[in-house]
Design brief:
The protein starts with a strand and ends in a 20-residue tail after the last helix. With 319 residues, it is of the alpha/beta class. Helix 10 packs antiparallel against helix 11. It has two domains: 205 residues, Spore Coat Polysaccharide Biosynthesis Protein SpsA, Chain A; 74 residues. It contains eleven helices and seven strands. Strands 3-2-1-4-6-5-7 form a seven-stranded mixed beta sheet. The longest helix is centred in the last third of the chain and has 34 residues. Bound molecules: uridine-5'-diphosphate and magnesium ion. The site of magnesium ion (MG) has 5 residues, from loops. Uridine-5'-diphosphate binds next to strand 1 and helix 4.
Length: 319
Amino acid sequence: MKRKLVSIVTPVFNEEAGVGKFLDSQLLPELLKLNYRTELIIVNDGSQDKTLTIINKCKLQKKIKTKIITFSKNFGKEIALSAGLKFAKGDAVIMIDADGQHPVSVIEKMLKKWEKGAQIVTAVRKHNTTKHRLGSKLYYAMMKMLGNKNIVVGAMDFRLLDRSVVDEFNKFTERNRLARGLIDWLGFKQEYIVVETNGRLSGKPSYNFGMLMSLAGDSLVSSTRTPLLIFGWIGIFITVVSLIMGLFILIQQYIMGDPLHLDWSGAVAMSVFVSFLVGLVLISQSMTALYISQIHAESKGRPLYIIDKKKSKGIGRAF
Ligand code: UDP
Ligand code: MG
């Protein structure tokens, strides 16, 4: 029987300083150790430096089947990963960064877990060594608060995906995407490996704080409706409280002739009335937003369900 094929997908963007070392000194020796057939898919995400020339010169290409996909411009890592997954033919596909931060020694461990039945193996960062430590902590705290309970803190893009997962992933049509978010959405049997991440081989991360914030914003918007609901609830609260206040003022002061001697001015009545209206506006805004979020969800055209296995028994035709 033919040995199983493992695809390695690596997105690269302006990595001239470290990519040669990553491919030849880190990845190659690791892949040669494995008892699998291997292929490497490099997605060159519109690099403007010498990245491509360096990749073309590296010796890994002589030993391992390599596909190099070069984008016409920079589309971002999430899109690069998606392209890589489309081109990967392996029974298992491993996504790994080209900057040396994902330790290659974990590949073998991932494959072991895969052989034992895991369909997704995710590397989880042990110590958050990035500069954006505070930012990512805040992000995870916010996601958890907003109802994404099953989010795993420190889960990285460094993952192994079984062929069945990759096939399902390739069906996603949404453009605004966070690969790891989509993978988690798919379900399947997921296992985790805690890893100590390395420092970058060289160069600097291409995501700055602003880009990370916008990525966080995108994934928040695409994965939860809670913020919309919060404003609706605030609106309901304000409306109810100001309604009670208003009724109290009306009855106490104007109908019963102020028996409690509060002597509230017209301005108080006015501000209570304005609060009531603000509450109504918030409620109606939240309603509109919920309708829009429905449209948003529909327009993504996600599959209704994901099938893990199909089996038919007995006499008759299989599927
Ligand atoms: N990358 C990419 N396109 C981009 C930005 C980054 O393909 O627009 C690649 C980059 O070359 C590296 C990986 O994605 O292999 C992770 O990038 P980076 O180190 O900048 O991100 P971080 O480690 O901070 O997540
Ligand atoms: Mg990095």
